[in-house]
Amino acid sequence: MKQMLKIELERAFKSAGLKVSLLIGIVISALHFFQKVVPVALNPLRFYKTGTLVTVANVNNTWMAMGEGWHYTLYVRLIPLLVVIPYAITYYTDNKKGIVKNYYSRTKKINYILAKYIAVFLTGGTAAVLPLMLNLFATSAVIPSFIAITDTIPCNANGMWSYILFTHPYIYYLLYFILQFICAGLLATMSLVISMYVNNAFIVLLFPSVLCEFLNAVLGWLPIKEYRYIKAAAPWRLFRIDQIAIDYWQSFVIFICVILLLDLIIYVWRGVKNDAL
Asked: Distance of CA 1 to CAs 4, 107, 269, Å?
């Protein structure tokens, strides 16, 4: 298992797909930095007025996930695609090229299945979180950091972990990076699930994006009172660090548990059972 995992991780993190995905994310992050952050850094006395409060520009209301601009909205919408570009489609390509049979002659089937799963999960999470982290670090290097103040940032005072945000913002960001890494990594594994049934690289690559947009549309129609936690499980909400809704940690639990269940039943069980994969 260790040798198989080492091979898959080396293939995954040296892949051209990961470089392309990171490049797209970093370009969006860099555009935000130069269009929104640099002008503020060059004018440190620039003030933002939000509601009845006036606060000097700082990291918490300027970096990509909390500041103004189209960059973060676009980034969140692209996450379902960015997480699968690095390595999620390689299960399909390995099977088509006959590489799978070569691996099976040298190791147990479960070793390959799990090693592939871990590699896809880790590269998906990396592709989703690393550009955001770079933007936060770059913004923190040129703009001062202050304790976040209610009504000056796009985050509900009763949102998940908001008590941490308004006291220790960088711990809040770290926790959300970890959570986003898990959700993005699991979303990438959905391509592994669909590749069990579909013999088309385009469909395997685009399935998570289509699924997320479908969920965004369908869950958006649900009444918020009766289906609050299910409605909040829409991907465009889950992948936003600026939580404008009230506490809904249950939505993350639903999202994570459903994907894990599908992965276990369809990918792991079927992958081990099906000789031809």
From this structure: 5, 8, 17
Condensed to tens digits (0 to 9), the pLDDT of residues 205-263 reads: 999 999 888 888 887 776 666 666 676 667 777 787 776 555 577 778 888 888 888 88
Percent composition of the chain: helix, strand, coil (DSSP 3-state, to 5): 65, 5, 30
d(CA 263, CA 13): 22
Does the pLDDT of residue 276 top 50, yes or no?
no
User: 103: which 2 tokens?
Assistant: 């691996």
Residue 212: closest CA among 83, 67, 21: 83
Query: In the numeric block, which tokens belong to residue 63?
Result: 């970096």
57 contacts 37 by C-beta, under 8 angstroms: no
Tell me the pLDDT tens digit for each residue of 38-82: 988 887 666 555 555 556 778 888 889 887 788 998 999 999 999
Q: Are 37 and 62 in contact (CB under 8 A)?
A: yes
Query: What separation in angstroms does the CA of 67 have from each of 176, 221, 241, 274?
Result: 16, 28, 11, 49
- DSSP 3-state of 161: coil
